[in-house]
Amino acid sequence: MGFAETLKAKAKETGQQTIQGTSIEGQAKKEATQESFAARLGAVAKATKQKAVSTPPPSGPPVGKSKDLKSLADSLKKAKETRDNERGAMVVDFPVAAVKAWSFSTLKKFENCQWAVKLGKVDKIYVESGEAAQRGTLIHDGCEAWVRGNVTELPADGRTKFDAFAADFAQLREDFRAGKVSLEDDWGIRKDWSPCDWDDPELWGRAKLDGFVKENDNSCVIIDYKTGKKFGNEMKHADQGLSYALHAMHRYPELDVFKVEFWYLDEGVKMIRSFNRRQLSMLLLRYHNRAVKLTTTRDFIPSANAHTCRFCEYGCNTNRDGVAYGNGACGFDHYRGLDEAV
Questions:
Q1: Considering the domain 129-296 in this protein, what is its CATH number?
Q2: How confident is the model over 85-111, as pLDDT tens digits?
Q3: What is the spatial distance between Cα 150 and Cα 144, in angstroms, rounded to a whole number?
Q4: SS3 letters for the chain?
Q5: Residue ranges covered by each domain of the chain
Q6: Is the pLDDT of residue 337 over 70?
Q7: 221 in Cβ contact with 213 (< 8 Å)
């Protein structure tokens, strides 16, 4: 008697009608179908002389899912450690070339046009400051003097909107008197980003801060005054803020939070960026390698195009818009080529 017949007989004897919600009749049919399928499968195997496929029991203790997952986790952890080690392989024993120390402004100019850095830092071609740069210097100097208490009024010139920063400057002045603020700091770093002064023989990078506020034992605020427009400069200034935060991370190993505030004095608005030490550690290598490229370059390649040449201080005296700009020292500038083509 097969299993299906046995099941029916047992049900008749005990009077049971269902098994886990399924009728005895339905369950019997299901089991009969399975027996029939097994019989057909056995017949096919016998006709084709196919041997049964079975998995032999392992010689050792059974390997469960937990062991497989642990092995996978160990592999992923090892791979992550390898990536982290590669990411952290920062080269610090390289020889510098023509430009021995970098700053954010020099780095951005180098990435915009290497030839402009050669003309300024290597050939030492003098460039007279423009009106906007001169005004920016006066505003910065005036803000510093007011925070120090050396003058009674901020350097308003009809274009600045100091009213929007009245509370900020008042708090900055109060914090300065309390010894929490340092102004116009000259920060330097060596190749390994260890802090140093600007006159250090191993100086490799420079940063100059308008204001630095140590809020508490865990965080700080870096302040940078900006004249001119915010719109269109957000990415550049965010990159500048990152460079300041990287300097601060190495200069103050006890801090974990680094906030950078850009005060746009002509527009009365702020842009704030915040980093923690873990984020900065992940961003350090890429920034380091950018600076390495600048300080190890021997062949400076010009990038003459409408974007890089338009406001270059070494360009031709008049661009295609008829605006006088630049001292004409560059022989590769975009607008000179256009003028000659005309």
A1: 3.90.320
A2: 545 579 999 999 999 999 999 999 999
A3: 9
A4: CCHHHHHHHHHHHHCCCEECCEEHHHHHHHHHHHHHHHHHHHHHHHHCCCCCCCCCCCCCCCCCHHHHHHHHHHHHHHHHHHHHHHHCCCCCCCCCCCCCCECHHHHHHHHHCHHHHHHHHHCCCCCCCCHHHHHHHHHHHHHHHHHHCCCCCCCCCCCCCHHHHHHHHHHHHHHHHCCCEEEEEEEEECCCCCEECCCCCCCCEEEEEEEEEECCCCEEEEEEEECCCCCCCHHHHHHHHHHHHHHHHHHCCCCCEEEEEEEECCCCEEEEEEEEHHHHHHHHHHHHHHHHHHHHCCCCCCCCCHHHHCCCCCCCCECCCCCECCCCCCCCCHHHHHHHHC
A5: 3-41, 129-296
A6: no
A7: yes
pLDDT in tens, 20-44: 445 556 555 555 565 665 666 576 5
